[in-house]
């Protein structure tokens, strides 16, 4: 099976529990999807870093993935906001996180990479969507993560570095649990450097939410 073309799509599939086809609930998944989209736009030159704030870079190609195009349009339209200045990377990670998570899921569904089904729990609970994926795609991505953690650093591509550093910053325990993050702490630090400002911004936003700020 082909892997998703985008960094958000690949990180979404990594959130599945190893050895199963079931999606592992992750309360920070929306933030992770936003950080991944912003990272891919930055690495492709469609966004640039301007003193800690994202700004539009070169023009977007017409075939740009719809999820990425939506995030890019949001950043490009920030000049229309009157009262506040441009958002930081952390601010854009927090913005519309739930909508971006659903958009990534629906994109994967349309591409046949996940199966989404509605589920009604007993009582007064609202409908929830169950998401399943092909375990082969998950295994491919887990193998890629393991290679990035162990291969010579000069052979790691920036997009691969971002996959792992964002998974670590986003506490994606389905593939990088706390013990693994400790063992590979130095490598993850180097990968974060290759990723750019988004991994640090994601870590700070998650820490702030956990602290209630």
Question: Any overview of this molecule?
Answer:
The protein starts with 6 loop residues before the first helix and ends with a helix. The strands form two sheets. It has a two-stranded antiparallel ribbon. Strand 3 (114-120) and strand 4 form a beta hairpin. The protein is 54% helix and 10% strand. Helix 2 runs antiparallel to helix 10 (197-211). The chain is globular. It has helices at residues 7-14, 29-43, 66-76, 89-94, 97-110, 135-150, 158-169, 178-183, 185-195, 197-211; strands at 47-50, 53-56, 114-120, 127-133. The mean pLDDT is 87. The chain is mainly α and 213 residues long.
Short précis:
This protein is mostly helical and 213 residues long.
Strand arrangement within the widest β-sheet reads: 1-2
Q: What oligomeric state is this?
A: single chain
* Biggest pleated-sheet summary: 2 strands, antiparallel
Radius of gyration (CA) equals 17 Å
Helix percentage range: 40-55%
Mean pLDDT metric: 87
For the record, give the distance between the C-alpha atoms at the N and C termini, rounded to a whole number. Answer: 41 Å
């Amino acid at each position: 099976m082909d892997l998703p073309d985008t960094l958000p799509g690949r990180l979404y599939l990594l959130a599945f529990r190893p050895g199963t086809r079931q999606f592992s609930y992750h309360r920070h998944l929306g933030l992770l999807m936003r950080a991944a989209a912003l990272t891919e736009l930055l690495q492709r030159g469609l966004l640039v870093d301007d003193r800690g704030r994202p700004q539009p870079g070169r023009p977007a190609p017409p075939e740009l993935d719809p999820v990425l195009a939506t995030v890019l349009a949001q950043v490009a339209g920030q000049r229309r906001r009157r009262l506040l200045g441009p958002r930081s990377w952390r601010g854009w990670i927090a913005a519309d996180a739930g909508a971006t998570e659903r958009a990534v899921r629906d994109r994967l569904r349309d591409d046949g990479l996940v199966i989404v089904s509605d589920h009604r729990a007993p009582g007064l609970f609202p409908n929830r969507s169950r998401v399943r994926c092909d375990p082969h795609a998950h295994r491919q991505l887990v193998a890629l993560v393991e290679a990035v953690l162990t291969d010579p650093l000069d052979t790691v591509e920036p997009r691969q570095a971002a996959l792992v550093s964002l998974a670590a910053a986003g506490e994606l325990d389905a593939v990088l649990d706390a013990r693994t993050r400790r063992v590979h702490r130095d490598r993850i630090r180097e990968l974060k450097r290759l990723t750019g400002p988004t991994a640090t911004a994601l870590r700070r936003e998650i820490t702030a939410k956990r602290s209630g700020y």
